[in-house]
Amino acid sequence: MQFVSLSVFYSKAEVATVETELLRDYRFGQQQLIEIWGHACAIAVTKAFPLSSLSKKQPTLLVVCGPEQNGSIGLVCARHLRIFEYEPTIFYPKRSSQSLHQDFTVQCEKMDIPFLSYLPTEVQLLNDAYNLVIDAILGPETDPKEVKEPYAGMLVTLKQVKIPIVSVDVPSGWDVDEPAKDGINPEVLISLTAPKKCATGFSGKHFLAGRFLPYDIQKKYELNLPEFSGTECVIEL
Amino acid sequence: MLGVRALFGIGLLVTSRGGSVLTHTGACARVASNIYSKHRQACTMANTIKYLGQEEAQHIDEELFNEYSFSVDQLMELAGLSCATAVSKGYPLQSLLRSPPRVLVICGPGNNGGDGLVCARHLKLFGYEPSVLYPKRPNKQLFQNLTTQCEKMDISFLSEMPEADVIDEAYNLVVDAIFGFSFKGAVREPFGDILSKLKKITVPIASVDIPSGWDVEKGCPDGIQPDMLISLTAPKKAANHFKGRYHFLGGRFVPPALEQKYQLNLPQYPGTDCVYQLN
After folding, report:
1. Among A60, A104, A110, which Cα is nearest to A81's?
2. Interface predicted TM-score (ipTM) of this complex, two decimals
3. Do residues B209 and B115 touch, judged by C-beta distance below 8 A?
């Protein structure tokens, strides 16, 4: 897999503008984009943690999903990981009321993916049960100063786990434009579409996932994305 | 110290459609692992893959949308990606004489055409130069959106079907996304004319799900003879009559419960690949 270094990172404002353009002008559907992102995320997880590399007897993992788009991407990711023969369990405390997002929940339930009813604060339970945690709680649209319960509590728990955390798009609780000094510390970051400013200097494994962005948008925002090889939809940065 | 079992046992309710709602028992810890171990057992039974009849294919499709709550645009995205991936495996960029290689994608009036539009978009991202012929466009938002997505990727749309010799000159490959598994009865224009031209070309044809014009179960001895067939979800009986070089399975989204219900005996896709080569 190719390793690439990037010079341009996306700001919070640009993320919002690009997404609006994708939906309004390019006529991508929201469920379509979430499917693309979730699928690519799952592939990135398999590259960071191949089945054979997992230390526990079963390839278990916990996917923690927030109430907005980032959470739905987590649901789709969990579904594809199930298809890839992993054994995900989902924690999804506050479900979105939008039917668009509800469909993703049903799809996971019908794949026989278990849903936890609460996240234990005894961190050792998580360390023992799962090989890794996928953080799909908060995305770039969240303001880190306004993180309410139950998410603030969940982040406290996640800061203490010993198993690796894989964050989807933005480590939950971080500001999109700058890394958090006392936030969660993921081992792996999967940036969607383009890396955000807070990923500058990220010291863990960093993947770019999602190969769909029209060339016009790439040029317009000077994203200078690296080239994907073959039919890959994930690049390790 | 509390172990894994307790994670599920102590005050936690683990719910899943397959299992039952649980409360404070240590034994209930098994539910999550049982869900997965049952699936593992089922997979070790080696059987041949099932080839579907037309009605069965339609039932499976309906279940995916009605019971499993998938949306058409989700599954179409995955299906189209499988098609583009199969094309790039059978006809790699470097193996084709033109750079970038040009692909003519012919889209029919239904969902098969939609799969073709998604396929065209991904082929463009993979470095091919697709052109789309989409003579009969359904009046539905989804298809209009997919068309716009292609247009905004600078994929050209032809205004008419070129003659067979022009296709051979200008393109390396044709993707046939005209008719799918719902096809029945007579072929309406302009597709009759399009299919008779496709019978004359020498460049390879890659058909999406069903070679267009073929009976979905019985095939068609004097119909088009594609070089590649990309069966989606599961192969249909028509595939028994396929004589081309490449038969791929795509559409890697079938829930285990659905696979078991219809005894599809799907093969194990390699790694995270979205296609499986059947021949």
Report:
1. A60
2. 0.93
3. yes
C-alpha distance from A13 to closest chain B C-alpha (Å): 23
Q: Are A189 and A167 in contact (CB under 8 A)?
A: yes
What rounded mean pLDDT belongs to chain B? 88
pLDDT (average), residues B92-110: 95
Strands B129-133 and A60-65: unpaired
Residues A138, B242: Cα–Cα separation, whole Å: 49
Residues of A in contact with B78 (CB under 8 A): 35, 39
Separation CA B149–CA A16 (nearest Å): 19
Q: Which of A96-100, B17-21, B77-81, B93-97 has the highest mean pLDDT?
A: B77-81
* Whole-number Cα distances in Å, A6 to A155, A224, A235, B246: 29, 8, 11, 39
- Contact: B272, A106; criterion CB under 8 Å: no
Cα dist. A149→A49, A67, A93, A170 in Å? 30, 12, 10, 19
- The whole-angstrom separation of Cα B220 and Cα B218 is 7
Task: Give the DSSP H or E segment for B209.
Answer: none
**Close Cβ partners of B62 (under 8 Å, ≥ 6 residues apart):** none
Rounded distance between C-alpha atoms, residue A173 and residue B120, angstroms? 39
Please indicate if any CB of chain B lies within 8 Å of the CB of A211: yes
